[in-house]
Hints:
The complex is a heterodimer of chains A (447) and B (264). Chain A is an alpha+beta fold.
Amino acid sequence: MFFRASVLLLLLVALIxxxxxxxxxxxxxxxxxxxxxxxxxxxxLGASCLACCFRWKPSWRRSGLLVTxxxxxxxxxxxxxxxxxxxxxxxxxxxxxxxxxxxxxxRMDASVDLPFWLTVVDLDPLPEYVWHQTDPETxxxxxxxxxxxxxxxxxxxxxxxxxxxxxxxxxxVSWSPRVELDSGSLLLFRRGPGEYCRATVRVExxxxxxxxxxxxHGEAVTIDxxxxxxxxxxxxxxxxxxxxxxxxxxxxxxxxxxxxxxGREGRGRxxxxxxxxxxxxxxxxxxxxxxxxxxxxxxxxxxxxxxxxLYEDTYSVxxxxxxxxxxxxxxxxxxxxxxxxxxxxxxxxxxxxxxxxPPGDKHYEAELLVESADEAxxxxxxxxxxxxxxxxxxxxxxxxxxxxxxxxxxxxxxxxPGRLWVVVGVWLLMAxxxxxxxxxxxxxxxx
Amino acid sequence: MHDLWLxxxxxxxxxxxxAVVLLYATDxxxxxxxxxxxxxxxxxxVVGLNGWLVGDxxxxxxxxxxxxxxxxxxxxxxxxxxxxxxSGLLPWFAGAAFFPLIGALFMKEGALWRRVPAxxxxxxxxxVVSYMFSYALCTVAFLLALVQGGLLLKARWRPAADSxxxxxxSILRLAFPFLTFGLLSGALWAEEAWGRYWSWxxxxxxxxxxxxxxxxxxHCRKHVxxxxxxxxxxxxAFASLVITFLVVNLGLIHKLSSALHGYA
Lengths: 447, 264
């Protein structure tokens, strides 16, 4: 009975994990894996493994099984202890700042702290129009002359022509797919999910005072010492869109991004500023990043006047440049500019275009200075190389991609009293399964 | 130029893997073993050339791991022969080595794969190698289970079915510690990289489901009441393995794509 109940427990855990891993929506896994039922099942599983250890008489023949079954409750004890007492927070450190003991921390899923509630009460996604000027030398008689997002007064073209909102949006609701201009040129609605918007936001303060602000894309407004501007739309799915805002808090000179779900009355994101005082001071004194050569995306001209350049493929740069099917598409010297910089784009002889993609990181590391009352130590912090100090572990997570060079790095600071239990349990479990498989009597013990 | 070498060596290895099955079926066992050694050498050359091209252990994309999966079959067989004297499984392992290599032959080779910072860990090679070794063994065990399932349809074939079940069990006993090492080394690696052992990422979750179903398989074998469920547990475990390895990695179902294992 006990044995069958244990197998049933295993099956239930497997089925719940399977349900959590099925494509049923992003919120499901967390809800399932943090549910009291799932935690209870894990506790029962650990207890049943422990009971097995007590039921069996210790012997070499069963050593693999014993170690394996003992490892499961050891891991679960460590994980449970960690879940209760762990501190796992993200830290943003400006490179070159003085060492600080008091760190501004945000939870893993937060990115900025606002001193007020923010709600998007009205959202107006804006289209992007592609301007095609007449050009008799092209096969279809047009060439692309730029992309424009309608402002409050419509679109003002470089030749001075103004395309008003009454033309772009005749009924005040839907956008014209195609606008023929007096000059003969065309404005064509660009298909696909929009990236631009204007929005009306409501701000609600601690003292219940509220105010309403209209935000235009990319234009900053100052609300209670916080600069706020719209940065576009983030499409979670075809029907689920979030508004991307950039916020700059008073006294800081870094724009930080936040996502706001539109239409949640009074439930806009509010990020409480959190401080943590460490028993030592921490600073990032230096940061180095090494990058791979960039990839290049190859585009071909479209046959249609309303078409964008057609994406063909992305290629990496090798020792011989970009080589496609044995032919050199672009030699290394043509991809390097005068200052040995990779060119941003390259027009090929056949009309196709190579566009440089953001280069990937090959390696990055930060110098971490830790100052306590009696010593100062410097550590090199890199991905996969966390630094342990004073019961805390610091992990290098990412850095800002400012074109002029990184300004700050994002660290994870973690203190987990259950870590040792988990690590010991993991090694026990691995050792136990190998012992079981390779012990001469393992087969008999198992059968 | 290296494309031709890679395709050529893969072609030779494929032909020889197929030849092993034919030679063994026609009772030319010594020749079959010889062909297996040559096929494996060709397969190893492909892995070696891939490694030379990328300048790193060639385990970074589906093409790399498919070639490596084939390579794992012969060493896995040798361990089984040494431990359980299961030399009769040669054609099964040769046949199982054939299919991943066929898949790799038609994949865009990843000569310019780049090892991103998250993959620059001491865990990278042992994690992937142990998974591929276990997947190689699990694949052969699954093929034997299919035959076992077919033989169970008639009562007089039951003894033969039992011998297939026994061979599959021996194979899975060897596979399971490597599967466990792969799963748990991934957790230790994640802790070093991101400060979290487990993120309930799609790939992680399905790997855990796979491990749990193989665990259920072993437990079912130990209890007479649960014996009828052994084959079903085995099939469910391998189905989970396929989802973990192929469906999630190749993005065959969009929402089953893994965020944390996008490079894998």
